[in-house]
Amino acid sequence: MLWGAWKLYLSREVSKSSGWGLCGRMAAAEPLTAFSRWYLYAIHGYFCEVMFTAAWEFVVNFNWKFPGVTSVWALFIYGTSILIVEKMYLYLKDKCNILVRCLIYTLWTYLWEFTTGFILRQFNACPWDYSQFDFDFMGLITLEYAIPWFCAAFIMEQLVIRNTLRLRFDENAEPGDPSATIALANGHVKTN
After folding, report:
1. pTM (2 decimals)?
2. What are 168's strand-pairing partners?
3. CA 63, CA 81: separation in Å to the nearest integer?
4. What Å distances lie between residue 188 and 69, 176, 183, CA to CA?
5. What is the Cα–Cα distance from 153 to 151, expressed in whole angstroms?
6. Which string of DSSP letters, residue by residue, matches 114-127?
7. Cα–Cα distance measured from residue 158 to residue 151, given in angstroms and rounded to the nearest whole number
8. Whose CB has fewer CB within 10 Å in the chain, the N or C terminal residue?
């Protein structure tokens, strides 16, 4: 215990004076690459699609099995779309309020859903068909989803994009090395 406290004290002093992190190495935490963020966004969108279709199946058909479905195409569609929305967020965050941004994201979502659906339909690969809805356009988009898309845009910006941009990658960290993680909490030296 005494050794751990001494090590923490030394790491703080070294860190204050020279910018070096724990164990005498320079802190090298860097933002995630665009591909890493795309991957996280793709997985997030894929998961949300499955959960939404499961919830929809329950609400419409009272199916207690909650069968959620999607297509592998959703990985590309969501990953790319959310990465583009991330760029919009970074550009618009100081220029307009959250409601206007979410409206812009919703319009983008409709444009992206129509474009990707139209392209996939050329190869008989479009996994969705909204033609049974009252306010659909070519079966590729529907106005009935405007409010869910708007809410999803809010969640996407406030939770997914903002937190993903906060993530850091430390290429010097050793997998399974607890000494580097014991003293740190959310990137700060943890004190009890």
Report:
1. 0.75
2. 31
3. 30
4. 40, 19, 8
5. 5
6. HHHHHHHHHTT---
7. 11
8. C
CA dist., res. 148 & res. 62, Å (int): 20
Chain center to CA of 79: 8
For residue 63, give every residue at least 6 positions away whose Cβ sits within 8 Å of its Cβ, in sequence order, or none: 57
Question: What does the block give as tokens for 16?
Answer: 């204050």
Q: For residue range 101-149, what is the model confidence (pLDDT) as tens digits?
A: 999 999 999 999 999 999 999 999 999 999 999 999 999 999 999 999 9
Q: Is 61 exposed, middle or buried (0-12, 13-18, 19+ CB in 10 A)?
A: exposed
pLDDT of 179 > 80? The answer is no
**What's the token pair of residue 79?**
């990953």
Q: What six digits make up the tokens of 152?
A: 């999803």
User: Look-up: residue for tokens 């206007």?
Assistant: 100
E runs forming strands in the chain: 29-31, 136-137, 141-142, 168-170, 184-185, 188-189
| Half-sphere CA count of 53, side-chain side, radius 13 A | 13
Non-local CB neighbours of 20 within 8 Å, separated by 6+ positions = 14, 26, 27
pLDDT band at 29 (very low <50, low <70, confident <90, very high): confident
